[in-house]
Automatic annotation (TrEMBL):
Superkingdom field: Eukaryota
Keywords assigned by UniProt, alphabetized: Apoplast, Secreted, Signal
Protein name: Neprosin domain-containing protein
Gene Ontology terms: cellular component: apoplast
A Pfam short name: Phi_1
Alphabetized InterPro entries for the sequence: EXORDIUM-like
Signal peptide positions (record): 1-28
Protein location: Secreted, Extracellular space, Apoplast
Family the UniProt entry places it in: Belongs to the EXORDIUM family.
Length: 305
């Protein structure tokens, strides 16, 4: 994995939880802007070491791995594709050449290893000081590996997710450290699977794979991975303040298709068999609802549909 930052030798860390936070509603008439701050981005091959901390079901693990496989798998007969969503993230590379007609280099993502800690080896209350131990457990000390740490819904992560969906900088590496709540709670899935108690009322979608917790987990993992690639050291692409950055998949909140506005997700497809809303096909026909991305070439929000 090439981060263009050879002096940093600690493992790259992406710390996630199965229970994530509310993304704010998009403001009507908002014109998002992400600025490139000249820092290194991730590129080339990205090896993920997955650590499932606590009691996490097989359904969640399979859905996550299917999504990761979908990033680099084209399915021409099933459009739109997860891989087309990922190509927008690939387009962040070599910012000075973004207007070039040349195709951007591929960012290959693969699962290098998977570890399960069902016994909650360091307890059910986690603080940032515990993160190095979890990273070591996930990566076994291997360099150039992104540790992806998922905490079960009965685990409490302290000092995390205050105002953002993820935090960078817990270690001297691109760190994501998320708080834990029940994934099927309304505030954790941004209202696309639940009717909002306030603000504009739009269409309430069914989860694409029939499980609110699983589909929300994948959705937020997608956003977190996008941020880690495009702003790994808080010096890449972001808007706002470095301590509370607006990043690739959070700059256009609540958007999943064209025509979106507060209370309406935009144009998405509905699976006639399950009633699930989705906007991307993935590995072996799997379906996902993925957030809008900021397109660096057009400096505007982009969706798969």
């Amino acid at each position: 994995m090439d981060s263009s930052h050879p002096e940093r030798k600690s493992p790259l860390v992406l710390s996630l939880a199965l229970s994530l936070l509310l993304l704010p509603l998009a403001a009507a008439g908002n014109h998002p802007v992400l600025t490139y701050h000249k820092g290194p981005l991730l590129s080339g091959g990205i090896n993920l070491s997955l650590l499932f901390y606590g009691q996490i079901g097989r359904v969640q693990k399979v859905a996550l791995r299917n999504f990761i496989k979908s990033l680099n798998t084209d399915s021409p007969n099933l459009e739109p594709e997860v891989s087309s969503w990922w190509r927008i993230i690939e387009s962040y590379q070599a910012p000075g050449n973004r207007n070039s007609a040349r195709r951007n280099p591929k960012i290959q993502v693969r699962v290098a290893s998977q570890v399960v800690d069902r016994s909650y080896s360091i307890g059910k209350v986690l603080i940032a000081d515990f993160l190095p131990n979890l990273v070591q457990k996930a990566t076994a000390g291997k360099p150039n590996t992104v540790a992806v740490i998922f905490a079960a819904k009965d685990v409490t992560v302290q000092d995390a997710c205050t105002g953002n969906c993820y935090l960078h900088g817990v270690l001297d590496s691109p760190t994501l450290w998320l708080g834990t709540q029940k994934m099927n709670a309304q505030e954790c899935v941004h209202g696309q699977f639940h009717r909002s108690e306030y603000g504009p009322q739009g269409i309430t979608l069914q989860p694409p794979n029939g499980n609110v917790g699983t589909d929300a987990m994948v959705m937020h993992f997608a956003a977190a991975l996008a941020a880690t690639v495009t702003n790994p050291y808080k010096t890449g692409f972001f808007g706002g303040l470095p301590a509370k950055p607006i990043e690739a998949a959070t700059v256009c909140p609540g958007m999943f298709g064209t025509g979106a506005f507060p209370g309406y997700t935009g144009k998405v497809r509905v699976d006639p068999r399950t009633g699930g809303g989705f906007n991307a096909h993935g590995f072996r026909g799997t379906k996902f609802l993925l957030p809008a991305l900021w397109n660096p070439k057009t400096s505007s929000c982009w969706t798969t549909m």
